């Protein structure tokens, strides 16, 4: 397989075509973005750490029966993925209150949510990813009712697989964001990434933040914390 032209450059990843029309290359860059691109910095090694972290997590999910876009690691910072037609919404599961939920509802950070909550957001930086509901998604034909049901069910399944995985490493999976796409067979597949850039992880005892909130809040040791998370779940980088 031969890497081809750049197809799309996002805030932290670049997508390349390949000589196989059903495969793409996903490059994880060191760029780190927060607040919808308002704060961007280059963090040494982050591309490599996130590429390997994502591959490891997606393998765990595949082993648990979740279909993912990832095919194989191609280099330190690149993975080969299946080409998907991405659904332009983000699916967020929360086990504990944090981030925009606290701002929106005026609740204290750290309150346990039992059962966990599920939210949809529209992927649109200019509008700051507004929350949308199922009728917006069907009304604008972003996804069908059946696809909505599948995105929800798979998101909760991912939570059921990953919460215990992080718990074994002494961490709370506070919340996370997933994106889905449709493959050539019209199957709904988990796409994009699962890394500490797109989830919140706290030490279970001290509740120390080990995810991208370290970057958002200027707490320092961002990549060092991602590497610590990886080590705690059995991935040495
Ligand atoms: P939020 O608290 O800002 O709504 O974010 C919830 C989770 O989703 C958090 O782990 C960060 C992740 N997320 C992204 O990765 N990208 C995004 O654009 C948004 C809105 C959230
Ligand atoms: N992922 C978004 C951004 O890059 C939002 C965030 O993580 O704060 O700006």
Folded structure, characterized:
Strand 6 (70-73) and strand 7 (78-82) form a beta hairpin. 30% of the residues lie in helices and 34% in strands. The model has no long low-confidence stretch (mean pLDDT 98). With 237 residues, the protein is of the alpha+beta class. The strands form 3 sheets. Strands 8, 9, 10, 11, 12, 13 and 14 form a 7-stranded antiparallel sheet that branches. Aspartic acid binds next to strand 4.
Give the topology string: H per helix, E per strand.
EEEEEHEEEEHEEHHEEEHH
Radius of gyration over C-alpha positions, nearest whole angstrom:
17 Å
- General form: globular
Query: What about the largest sheet?
Result: 7 strands, antiparallel
The end-to-end span amounts to 26 Å
CATH topology term of the largest domain = D-amino Acid Aminotransferase, Chain A, domain 1
Question: What is the strand content?
Answer: 25-35%
Structural classification: alpha+beta
State the domain count: 2
The ligands found in this model are: thymidine-5'-phosphate, aspartic acid
Q: CATH H-level name of the largest domain... which superfamily?
A: ATP-grasp fold, B domain
The top-level CATH class of the largest domain is Alpha Beta
Q: Could you say what the CATH architecture of the largest domain is?
A: 2-Layer Sandwich
- Stretches where pLDDT is under 50 for at least 5 consecutive residues are none
Average pLDDT reading: 98
| Helix content, binned percent | 25-40%
Question: With helices defined by DSSP (H or I, 4 residues minimum), what is the helix count?
Answer: 6
